[in-house]
């Protein structure tokens, strides 16, 4: 099958990042064997960027899929992939960052991640998993000390680029004011009904790449909404052009300026060259 080249952005770290990633969050998740097979199929059809996190429970199956893709010759070496993972809130403390990344690398069976993000700007007690219960378990969070731990991961070559997720302008500025290595990425919820213009402006001005989670509004998940896929303007364009709303969305949004990464879970792996051919 012909592989489509996904556009890339050069991050402030100097590393290239494919602008479309396959997201790996899911609740409930399919069994590991099915996940491995989904990720292998994704590599076969052209995905090169995968977005995982220690809290998603997808690092191990993703690592197995990477190993299998190498074995099958779908990729020639690991460097052809871009793997993002994230530090969970229980480990958002200077001394815990490096051990957490080492555990992530053990699960992925890789020697480095391409991008390592602080998942949320909070620290919670060990064992806290679900966001709803985090409030009861909040601990003091030292942003700059945690960021120092992230920088150490980068200096050791265990993360090629480092960044944050779900950070506001104020919290990002705290890091930028003291960082030796500035965050390369801020991954935030961003879609047509949640456009985050002020944050975009701030990140643009400071060379921090914004990537979008839930670009389709996370249709179908308990944290999502129908506001994107049921947007009447997008629906009208989609029906006039005989395309899906998701295709219209991907077309009108970000490619011109390389502003965001769109992260799509293509459930049926429907990515084909036709996706990017549309005249609106
Ligand atoms: N950093 C963070 O805090 C954070 C938070 C959330 C997510 N993320 C990352 O971002 C990724 C994407 O976010 P998300 O999964 O929440 O939301 P999303 O990509 O906006 O929505 C995913 C859902 O959209 C539907 N969908 C996907 N492709 C479609 C298509 N071509 N046509 C119609 N519907 C389509 C599917 O719903 P159905 O299953 O109903 O078909 C799928 O489950 C995650 O997998 C994760 O890696 C990061």
From TrEMBL:
PROSITE patterns: ALDOKETO_REDUCTASE_1 (PS00798), ALDOKETO_REDUCTASE_2 (PS00062). Signal peptide: none annotated. GO terms for biological process: indole alkaloid biosynthetic process. The record marks 86 as: Lowers pKa of active site Tyr. The active site is at 56 (proton donor). Keywords: NADP. Substrate binds at residue 119. It comes from the Eukaryota. Belongs to the aldo/keto reductase family. This is NADP-dependent oxidoreductase domain-containing protein.
């Amino acid at each position: 099958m012909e592989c489509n080249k996904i556009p890339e952005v050069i991050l402030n770290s100097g590393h290239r990042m494919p602008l479309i990633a396959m997201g790996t969050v899911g609740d409930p998740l399919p069994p590991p064997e099915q996940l491995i097979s989904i990720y292998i199929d994704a590599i076969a059809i052209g995905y090169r960027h995968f977005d995982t996190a220690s809290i998603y429970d997808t690092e191990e199956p993703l690592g197995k899929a990477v190993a299998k893709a190498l074995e099958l010759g779908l990729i020639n070496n690991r460097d052809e992939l871009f793997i993002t993972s994230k530090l969970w809130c229980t480990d958002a403390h200077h001394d815990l960052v490096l051990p957490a990344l080492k555990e992530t690398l053990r699960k992925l069976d890789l020697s480095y991640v391409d991008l390592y993000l602080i998942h949320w700007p909070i620290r919670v007690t060990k064992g806290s998993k679900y966001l709803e219960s985090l409030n009861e378990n909040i601990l003091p969070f030292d942003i700059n000390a945690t960021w120092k731990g992230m920088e150490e991961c980068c200096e050791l070559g265990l993360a090629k680029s480092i960044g944050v997720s779900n950070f506001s302008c104020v919290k990002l500025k705290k890091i930028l004011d003291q960082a030796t290595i500035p965050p390369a990425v801020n991954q935030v919820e961003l879609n047509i009904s949640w456009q985050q213009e002020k944050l975009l402006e701030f990140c643009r001005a400071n060379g921090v790449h914004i990537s979008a989670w839930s670009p389709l509004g996370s249709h179908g998940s308990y944290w999502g909404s129908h506001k994107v896929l049921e947007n009447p303007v997008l629906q009208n364009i989609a029906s006039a052009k005989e395309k899906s709303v998701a295709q219209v969305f991907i077309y009108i949004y970000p490619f011109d300026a390389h502003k965001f990464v769109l992260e799509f879970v293509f459930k049926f792996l429907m990515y084909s060259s036709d996706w990017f051919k549309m005249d609106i």
